[in-house]
Amino acid sequence: MKKVLIALDYGLSAQKIAEQGYQLAKSMNAKVALLHVVADETYYSMIDSAPFMGFYGYNFFDLATNDNLINSSLNFLEKIKSNLKDDSIETIAEQGDFPETILETAARLNSDIIVLGSHSRNWLEKAVMGSVTESVLAKANIPMFIIPVKDRN
After folding, report:
1. How far is CA 120 from the centre of its chain?
2. N or C: which end of the chain has fewer CB within 10 A?
3. What CATH number is given for 3-149 in this structure?
4. Residue 149 backbone phi and psi in degrees, to 5
5. Which pLDDT tens digit goes with each residue over 106-117?
6. Which comes out higher in pLDDT, residue 52 or 109?
């Protein structure tokens, strides 16, 4: 394996997913790319300001334009990269449909594996919102490493 794509959201589990995906990549001597797919700005207005990845009460979402959301996402990924202490990690922020953008980015980078977290959600949330992980899994033509995570409420 040469390239591992780690797709992250702004959840409290981002650090766990990044660390475990990074460990997988390093065990295979593979390069790492961190990806955040930028969502509609209403998604970011619903995010709790709980501390994660070193962002304690810091409002790092500038909702004025999509360019600002991309820049905020890149800053978020750079913070994760800094915590992993590996300057060779590539950081990518793209806008689009979550599953499609993850799969397109994996293909563009010639990724050998996609790392995602799978949040524990109830059946109603899955029925209404769907599951990014399930959608990527259904369409992926490369292996996936799925990390189970539970959001803290």
Report:
1. 16
2. C
3. 3.40.50.620
4. -135, 150
5. 999 999 999 998
6. 109
